[in-house]
Design a protein that fits this description.
By secondary structure, this protein is of the alpha+beta class. It is 18% helix and 44% strand. It has three helices and 14 strands. The strands form two sheets. Strands 1, 2, 4, 5, 8, 9, 11 and 14 form an eight-stranded antiparallel sheet that branches. A six-stranded antiparallel sheet has the order 7-6-10-3-12-13, with no helix packed on it. A hairpin with a 2-residue loop joins strand 6 and strand 7. Helix 1 packs antiparallel against helix 3.
Length: 245
C-alpha cells in the first residue's frame, strides 16, 4: 500500500511540474550571448542580461534636452520575458564649442522612458523615470580620440511589466552642464528614432543598452490541472472503497 501511495505522489508531482506552460523565450534562452569583460568596468552586457545591444566605440548619438532645444533617441527591443528591473547603457558627456570637447558632469541626470511598440513605431508611454546616475569609465575612448566612454546603470522602480517588446528612450534631462551622447551598437535591427522637437527621424542604426528582468510566475497548463484533480479524486475514491471493504 505504501508503495502505491509513493508512486501516485511521484506521478502527481511530475505531472504538475512538467505540465507547466513553457514560454518560447524561456526555451530559447537569453537574447544576447556570453559576455566578455573589457578593461575597467564591464564594457559588454553581462551574461544575466535578458536583452542586450553591446557598445561599439565608433561614434555616438546626441540625446540631451540641453542640446539645441533637445534631441532624444529611442531604440526598440523584443523577446523580453518578465518585469524590467534595471538597465545598463553606454555613452559620453561632451560639449560642442568649435568642436566636440570633453565635459565632466558626473553624476548625470537622465530621463528613462519605456513605450509600447505600435507596428514598428513608438507607441503609448508605459513609464518614465528621472534619475541621477553615476557614470563609470570603461577604459575605452570614442574612436581614436581621448573622449572617455562611460557605463551607466540604473534600477527601474517600479519595474516595467508586460512589455515583451517595445521602445526605450534615454535622454540627458533636466539640462546640465554637459550633453549626453548615446554610444552606437552593432547589435539590434538597424532601426532607431531620433526626435527633435515634434519631428521624428528614422535612423538606420542602434544604440547600446542592456535590460535585466525578473521572471513572471510560470503558470500551470489547463490539462495539468485537470489531470491533477482527476488523480486526487480517483485516489480518494479508491481509499473510500478500501475502507468499506
Amino acid at each position: 500500500m505504501k508503495t502505491r501511495i509513493f508512486l501516485f505522489a511521484f506521478f502527481l508531482f511530475g505531472t504538475l511540474v512538467f505540465g507547466q506552460v513553457q514560454d518560447e523565450a524561456m526555451i530559447q534562452g537569453k537574447v544576447h550571448g556570453t559576455a566578455i569583460d573589457g578593461p575597467g568596468t564591464q564594457y559588454y552586457c553581462s551574461a544575466g542580461a535578458d536583452y542586450g545591444q553591446d557598445p561599439d566605440g565608433g561614434y555616438a548619438w546626441t540625446s540631451d534636452i540641453g542640446y539645441y532645444s533637445g534631441f532624444k533617441i529611442f531604440d526598440n527591443f523584443s523577446g523580453v520575458s518578465g518585469n524590467i528591473t534595471s538597465i545598463d547603457w553606454w555613452g559620453l558627456t561632451l560639449i560642442y564649442s568649435g568642436g566636440w570637447q570633453i565635459c565632466d558632469e558626473n553624476p548625470k541626470s537622465f530621463e528613462i522612458s519605456f513605450y509600447h511598440d505600435d507596428a514598428g513605431d513608438i507607441g503609448s508611454l508605459v513609464s518614465t523615470h528621472t534619475l541621477s546616475v553615476v557614470g563609470y569609465f570603461t577604459g575605452y575612448y570614442l574612436g581614436t580620440g581621448n573622449k572617455p566612454i562611460m557605463k551607466y546603470s540604473a534600477t527601474i522602480s517600479p519595474p516595467v511589466s508586460g512589455l515583451s517588446e517595445g521602445w526605450v528612450a534615454i535622454q540627458g534631462n533636466p539640462a546640465g552642464s554637459c550633453w549626453f551622447l548615446w554610444l552606437h551598437s552593432l547589435d539590434g535591427d538597424g532601426n532607431m528614432i531620433q526626435r527633435y522637437g515634434t519631428y521624428d527621424y528614422l535612423r538606420a542604426d542602434d544604440v547600446s543598452f542592456c535590460l535585466y528582468c525578473t521572471s513572471y510566475p510560470v503558470p500551470l497548463s489547463k490539462w495539468a490541472i485537470y489531470i491533477g484533480i482527476f488523480l486526487i479524486a480517483a485516489f480518494l475514491v479508491f481509499r473510500f472503497r478500501r475502507r468499506l471493504a
